[in-house]
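testing teh design pipeline on a random one, pls ignore if ur not involved
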């Protein structure tokens, strides 16, 4: 497959935390959504890569499936974490890849946080319905993504989401999307502290299938947040920060 140079930014020092964004954006959305929650505790090195084909990370023709992307991310995780274990956070497709990393490196991943995770067996996905609607605010893309359509959310969209859209390698996304399911990894349930957060109004992946993850993550906390769609990290930042802080505390206790 060859080397794929992964662009990233990082903040802080200490235990590595790998934070993965979803499809169609880049590290800027992940930083905006998760850095306020992760930065409140000292001793963590927060690492935000651009996933292949997005941001400044290329999506060469050799990448033809989600499994190829996972291989790139595993190599990157090994490179940036060295001999240390790491925590993995993901939003949307990033959460799907985070699960793959934990499945392939269960001895290296000491905690897993999944926000609006992509499911291979999503079900009962609700139609898009804004809880705060503003038909004349922002673009159609903004209104399709956010269910809280306020001036503050539009500002976040325009600063942290929209600038990344022109950088997406659409050809790479199409190739990978044709084989977007990761190969099943046989093995025991992941035993580390886990957080699963879903939006009640998420019209992209839904929330019902989130409960199915509890069978594979015996140490999972599950939260379904009202007033949140797929843009949950933007729309419910305070609640998410509290859940993330609890998850960090549980992971620290497990590592002690």
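output:
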């Amino acid at each position: 497959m060859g080397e794929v140079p992964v662009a990233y930014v990082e903040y802080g020092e200490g235990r590595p935390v790998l934070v993965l964004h979803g499809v169609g954006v880049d590290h800027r959305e992940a930083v905006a959504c998760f850095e306020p929650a992760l930065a409140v505790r000292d001793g963590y090195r927060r690492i935000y890569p651009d996933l292949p084909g997005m941001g400044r990370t290329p999506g060469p023709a050799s990448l033809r499936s989600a499994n190829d992307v996972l291989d790139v991310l595993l190599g990157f995780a090994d490179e940036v974490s060295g001999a240390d274990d790491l925590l993995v956070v993901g939003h949307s497709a990033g959460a799907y890849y985070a699960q793959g990393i934990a499945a392939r490196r269960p001895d290296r991943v000491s905690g897993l946080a999944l926000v609006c995770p992509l499911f291979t067996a999503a079900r009962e996905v609700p139609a898009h319905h804004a809880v705060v609607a503003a038909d004349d605010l922002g673009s159609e893309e903004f209104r399709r993504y956010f269910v809280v359509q306020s001036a503050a959310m539009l500002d976040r969209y325009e600063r942290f989401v929209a600038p990344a859209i022109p950088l997406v390698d659409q050809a790479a996304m199409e190739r990978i999307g044709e084989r977007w399911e990761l190969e099943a990894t046989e093995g025991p349930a992941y035993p580390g502290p886990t957080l699963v957060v879903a939006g009640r109004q998420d019209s992209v992946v839904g929330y019902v299938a989130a409960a199915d993850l509890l069978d594979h993550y015996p140490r999972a906390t599950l939260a379904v947040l009202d007033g949140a769609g797929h843009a949950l990290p933007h729309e419910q930042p305070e609640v998410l920060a509290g859940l993330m802080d609890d998850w960090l505390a549980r992971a620290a206790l497990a590592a002690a």
